Amino acid sequence: MSASLIGTSHGTDDPAGQAAVRALLDGVRVARPGLDVREAFVDVQQPEVGDVLAEAVRDAASAATSAAGPAAVVVPVLLSTGYHVRHDIAQAVAAVNATTEGSAVAADPLGPHPLLVDILADRYAAAEAAHGPFRPDDAVVLAAAGSSVAAAATAVEEVTSALAQRLGRPVTPSYGAGAEPRVPDAVAAARAANTGRVIVVSYLLAPGYFLDRVLEAGADVVTDPVAGPAGADKPDPRLVQVVLDRYDAAAGA
């Protein structure tokens, strides 16, 4: 019996954002039949990650399986590390591991990952098909949620650099919170320094609070988030693969 996968996202009041995360985890279930996939949250929505994780570990203990490895793996359905990864998820894992019922581990967050750069490049290409062609004097800004944790900004900068190399043009990182520059400031600076349009590439998982703020930041074009346009019929298989990559690495598969 393999470890349960606890897909843990931030949580949102936005129905489109909720549907996108749910569809992603459904995609994981389809890609890995038989894997126990459970949904949890660190904020806004219920159930909380600690409760879901404890239940999964209890279920594994009651099944009396002898499989090696953890009973459950918490996969942060978040694009970078930060407070929720280092505090909420870490606390939930530590609390479970302090009991005698089983063991749990936390996987790395989804980013950075080469497949995420592929997705961002495709979101850029789709925006160009709808609004382009983009010109050399257009500016490109990458918008991430942001965190006060320095490692999160480092990870975003890594993704920004990889995307710039892929697109063959400069890309400026920006953040919704926690780090500088903030998205509106980066958009304003890009507009002041260039004669063309400002294109924002959304390094955000799904619709929700931060995407709404990006849409208000004054850019000429904003790409769809990583999970794709609202109402997409199926999750991006590359994003599903990123979730499974993180799970497998943590589970020791």
Provide structural commentary.
By secondary structure, the protein is α/β, with parallel strands linked by helices. The protein has two domains: 4-110 and 233-251, Rossmann fold; 114-222, Rossmann fold, CATH 3.40.50.1400. The protein has eight helices and eight strands. The chain has helices at 15-31, 49-62, 83-97, 114-131, 150-167, 183-193, 209-215, 237-251; strands spanning 4-9, 37-41, 72-76, 104-106, 139-144, 172-175, 198-203, 221-222. The strands form two sheets. Strands 2-1-3-4 form a four-stranded parallel sheet, sandwiched between helices. β3, α3 and β4 form a beta-alpha-beta unit. The longest helix has 18 residues, at 114-131. It is elongated, with a radius of gyration of 19 Å. The mean pLDDT is 94.
Features:
alpha/beta; 8 helices; 8 strands; Rossmann fold; four-stranded parallel beta sheet
Short structural summary:
45% of the residues lie in helices and 15% in strands. The protein is of the alpha/beta class and 253 residues long.
* Share in β-strands: 5-15%
Kindly state the mean pLDDT as a whole number?
Answer: 94
Rg on CA atoms, Å: 19 Å
Q: Report the structural category.
A: alpha/beta
Low-pLDDT stretches? none
Order of helices and strands: EHEHEHEHEHEHEHEH
Beta strands, count: 8
What CATH architecture label of the largest domain applies?
3-Layer(aba) Sandwich
- Straight-line distance between termini: 12 Å
> Count of helices?
8
Strand order of the largest sheet: 2-1-3-4
> How helix-rich are the residues, as a percent range?
40-55%
Please tell me what the overall shape is.
elongated
Do you know the CATH topology of the largest domain? Rossmann fold
> Largest beta sheet, briefly?
4 strands, parallel
Summed up, the domain count is 2
CATH class of the largest domain: Alpha Beta
